[in-house]
Amino acid sequence: MEGMKAESVAVRRDLQQIMKMLGKQVVQAEGSSDDSSVNDNRQRVGREVGDGGTDDRSDEQKSWRRRVELPSFDGAEPLSWLNRVERFFNIQKVSNDEEKVEIAYVSMEGSAAYWFTFWKEKARNRSWEGLKAAMINRFGGVFRGTVFERLATLRQTGTVEEFVRDFEVLMGQTRGIPDEQVLG
């Protein structure tokens, strides 16, 4: 029970730090242009047409483009989650490694959140790249080895549809493979 209380205190402390970081970004965004590095959602909370806000169509489109949810992670399909969270970081213009790690922590649920706490205490490389490598190592499941190793050993054991799905999942993780090599 004491361990859970300590864990709860640690989680609250981490969330407070993240909220401070996000608050600083909001303050910076209010002083900069529409192309700021902060999610416009924070500025739009509670702002609806008719409550004193503007009804400018271009503002609405810009906000819509940046309104992207941070995907949650429960330990399943780490490669898919990492791809989605990387897109989230690109859209939200998050480039600081420490910030990426802290934001990733907020999205973790269940056993993944407990694992993260353990990783953060024990890991030597606490960078975003270090976290990604550790997540793939820990939650990779049946997807062990490099993408190329898995492609080379991919075999049809079920339906053609399942094989094609597995192939597409692996190909989605590669860049720059010549068509001759893929089709050959």
UniProtKB/TrEMBL annotation:
Protein's name according to its UniProt entry: Retrotransposon gag domain-containing protein
Domain Retrotransposon gag: 103-181
InterPro entries in the record: Retrotrans_gag_dom
Basic and acidic residues bias (residue ranges): 41-63
Record region (Disordered): 26-63
Signal sequence segment: none
Composition bias, Polar residues: 30-40
